[in-house]
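Recap quiz, item 2
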Amino acid sequence: MNAFDFLPQYAKMLHNLDLCLEKAIAHAKAKSFEVDTLVQARLAPDQYALDRQIQSACDSAKFSAAYLSGKQAPAHPDTEKTIAELRTRIKSCLAFLETVTAADVVGGEDRKVAPKWLGGKWVKGDQFLVQASLPNFYFHVTTAYSILRHNGVDVGKMDFMGSLPLRD
Amino acid sequence: MNAFDFLPQYAKMLHNLDLCLEKAIAHAKAKSFEVDTLVQARLAPDQYALDRQIQSACDSAKFSAAYLSGKQAPAHPDTEKTIAELRTRIKSCLAFLETVTAADVVGGEDRKVAPKWLGGKWVKGDQFLVQASLPNFYFHVTTAYSILRHNGVDVGKMDFMGSLPLRD
């Protein structure tokens, strides 16, 4: 098992999140409300709203792929104001993940990962993945999902999880 | 990187969750309400309340360690009714995780993982870990955290994440 094995999982989860947004659009249509009111929905007044949960999930996936591969992540200025724009952000992130190959990530576990928010310190690639990137990513994807569910969107845990590669 | 690297992370996250429950107790005391009212708090009427979120997070960690190591997980009959009992459940799960050694998990990535809910099918160990156990675990830990935060408990993302092994 190596760091690259997680990149398709980030992509799978972002794809599932996009399908949850599709369900949000259907829900808004059925209830005759403007779907973009959900963009500022949140679970606590001092917690990120849906927009920043999705932006953060995208960033977490994109920077994980970038840090572990040494590739440059595309810039996203966090200007999304609508569900449609947030879905475009997800698609852009998915497109970047597609460009990162297994060969790019060879040795990723041993890279020095030093994002700005670590203030000059660094974390070893595998520890970054296990202890920082994955929990942070799942935190934001789950919270985005919970905001939708809290607002009546018909999503269940299998929408969040997606399918498994089952064998007979 | 192998499957064993994730076991201390399950433990770390459960420990962080326990600290969030400690904050819930402090919050209830400060606001003079009975902390166990939070046990049935939930974010949507058809979603698990806090008790089952915590039970599920514990089970996810415990069964992951059991399936990847071949060890028998301790039974927990899901009878917790109080925050104190939920904290005991977490501690019991942490104690089991402590018993699983790196040697137990050697080859865990290639094990056939066939929990009952897969209805006779199975998933390869590494795919179980990456695509089932970790997302499921983080889903429940994050939702438990969100229920607390939604109810005014003073938890922030760093309580969820815990500290990182930073290097100079």
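DSSP finds six helices and two strands in chain A.
Chain A has a mean pLDDT of 97.
End of item.
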